[in-house]
Write a structure and sequence with these properties.
globular, Arp2/3 complex 21 kDa subunit ARPC3, two-stranded antiparallel ribbon, 7 helices, mainly alpha
Amino acid sequence: MKGAVRRGNRRTDNKMTKAKKTASIQNMAMTAVMTAVLAVLAQVAIPLPTGVPITMQTFAVALIGAVLGVKNGLISYGVYILLGVVGVPVFANLKSGISVLLGVTGGFLFGFALLVLFSAIGSNKKMAGAIFFGALGLFCTYALGCLQFAFLMKTSIVQAIVQVCLPYLVKDIISVIVAFIAGRIIRGLLQKIRR
């Protein structure tokens, strides 16, 4: 009797181990896919005279958080930043290198990590909560972006807000809301696939 129980426990343990490995592989694959999605959508860019282009990055970053959650979302975004820093042209307008992080758009790239974080937190809330956390992530992104832009361009914070925040605000709010909706749909599909 004890032998049968042990064999049963081993089978259950083997099934659980296999399920964990499968989930881990799926998580790694989705993390890589979302990094690639961000790299591609960053190239959908309209250059502006300020040096801060209109891009689809905000949508992609919010989508990363909404689909992957905090841990995998931050890993995905970190891989994107690392790829760009080591020379892979993944930043907007096919740019790369540490100079991008230290340039006029760098503050936004730093702030996007917070947008991933707050989008991940918001993805588990009802839509009103999701929008609140998305807005908080956008605020952090804009704050860091404006501060670095103002510092490098030797301009006031108000001037920076007018130049590099206000022109993007409506597009970014819509991007975050659409990312939450898309993220819920994608997560639902992934759950069905995993069953």
